[in-house]
Amino acid sequence: MQISAAIYCRISKDRLGAGLGVERQRQDCEELAEKLGWNVVAQHTDNDISAYSGKPRPGYRALLADIRAGRVNGVLAWHSDRLHRRPIELEEFITACETHGATVQTVRAGKVDLSTPSGRAVARTIGAWNRHEVEHMIERQKRAKLQAAQDGKFRGGRRAFGYESDGLTIRHDEATIIREMTTRILAGESLRSLATELTERGITGTRGGEWTGVALRDVLIRPRNAALIEHHGEIVGPALWEPVLDEDVWRAVRSLVSSPGRWHGRSAARKYLGSGLYLCGLCGLPVRITGHRRGNQQRPGYRCSGRAVHVHRVADKVDQLVTDAVIERLSRPDAIGLLRPRTPLVDVTALHTEASALRARMDELASLFATGTITVSQLGTGTTELTAALTVIEARIAVATMPSPLDGLVGSADVARVWLDLSLDRRRAVVDDLLTVTILPGKRGRKAGGIYFDPESVRLEWRTPG
User: Are 224 and 241 in contact (CB under 8 A)?
Assistant: First the structure.
């Protein structure tokens, strides 16, 4: 009987993305088909997909569809473990081949006889050992990675942004980007706006494509940036490579972008200086942007975010008033005083010591639970309390090390020029740092000079440093 065969090829990992392993399998299967006198009518491939993981394998599903449709009555694979690593898939394959009379041949393991009870029993036994081999390999890899983590070694994987493929050498152009983004995030800019800027600048991550706020956040909060080793979500010690960021700075940015109240995904872009920042003078709620009609013209305006229309003012007029006031204040000789710490000076070293002690106590709890000294309930209660205390300390470290939004403005010879170069997020951070802007109900009618806008309807209250 003439055999119309399908070749199936698969490799679990393809770090280079070149499919070289798959190509070698295909060549060997084609040579086997020629020896057997089989006619190859289809080829199916799953590249960089594990058969053990249970992830969908499009090529494998297409192979089954060919068998069930009668398009092929022969299957060629490099080895039986290329077809299956999970018994549940093997049973589905056996049923399909048995029902439709398909013959299976492999380059390395010879014929897989699924036509007799004995042949199927052998296939199931080989399948069970294939699964055992993978599970055993995974356990060895886990132990090796844990030991490597405890030793501070690089444990492989995709190249991390900021480092070369060896995981140890800093890639300086990317490291500079990490430092720049960290500084700007701490100074008040948003993940979303910075991600957009990176894309516009033509800077790509290690996988290419456009940046998103989530992707940028993931890069900035990696412990490896501070030369720390993370294993299963826990920091287990220092790494052997050089850091891109000081640990204090890294902890500060991680605390800031990981705060529950911060949105990291897609959001409406802020387009105005005071939206959500300025306050209503009657109810104290933040104002929002809406249309403001004056005669036949409609311009963006700030309106109280409550149900009642307490205040409604042309946005660009208010923003210009606030901008002029900020630039004038920061241009004064005494502006340097605005950089004084907003919180009492703290001993960051002492805070790190306290944080290390809390982590050691958490490790001790885990050891006590492992030996049966404490119960699951006691472990959970103790861990919750220690985690809460650690979160407070890390937040204090973040505040103590966070730069001022005024950095680069105060002391500049031309504050107005520097202001124009700042992103909107940064300008909003500066305003929020310096003063409270409250929009008051205005008087109706035109003012002197024929204008409607009343500067006295905007109250500026400067915050006191210290």
Answer: yes
> Is there a contact between 92 and 65 (Cβ–Cβ < 8 Å)?
no
Cα 381 to its chain centre, rounded Å, is 30
CB 112 within 8 A of CB 80: yes
H-helix segments, 101-220: 117-150, 172-186, 191-200, 213-220
> Residue 186 corresponds to which tokens in the numbers above?
């701490």
By three-state DSSP, how is residue 176 classified? helix
Which residues are 75's β-sheet partners? 6, 104
Rounded mean pLDDT for each run of 10 residues along the chain, 466 residues in total? 89 53 88 94 84 75 93 91 79 89 88 80 72 64 56 69 91 94 85 91 88 92 88 72 87 77 48 89 89 68 82 89 94 82 63 81 84 87 88 77 80 90 87 92 60 83 78
Do the beta carbons of residue 114 and residue 94 sit within 8 Å? yes
Q: How far apart are CA 407 and CA 230, in angstroms?
A: 32
Residue 343's CB is within 10 A of a number of other CB atoms, namely: 10
Q: From residue 334, give the alpha-carbon distance in Å to each of 329, 411, 436, 463.
A: 9, 9, 20, 15
Q: How far apart are CA 48 and CA 303, in angstroms?
A: 54
The single-letter DSSP state of residue 241 is S
Please give the DSSP secondary-structure letter assigned to residue 314: E
Q: How far apart are CA 78 and CA 67, in angstroms?
A: 18
Q: What is the 3-state secondary structure (H, E, C) of 245-258?
A: CCHHHHHHHHHHHC
Q: Which residue, 191, 204, 330, 315, is CA-closest to 254?
A: 191
Separation between Cα atoms, residue 102 and residue 67, nearest integer Å: 7
Q: Is the dihedral of CA 78, 80, 83, 86 positive or negative?
A: negative
Residues in the chain: 466
DSSP, collapsed to helix, strand or coil, labels residue 140 as helix
- The C-alpha atoms of residue 43 and residue 187 are separated, in whole angstroms, by 55
> How far apart are alpha carbons 144 and 79 in whole angstroms?
27
Sheet of strand 458-462, all strands in order from the earlier edge strand to the far edge: 279-280, 435-439, 458-462
Amino acid identity for residue 19 in this structure: G
Burial of 263: CB neighbours in 10 Å, binned 0-12, 13-18, 19+: exposed
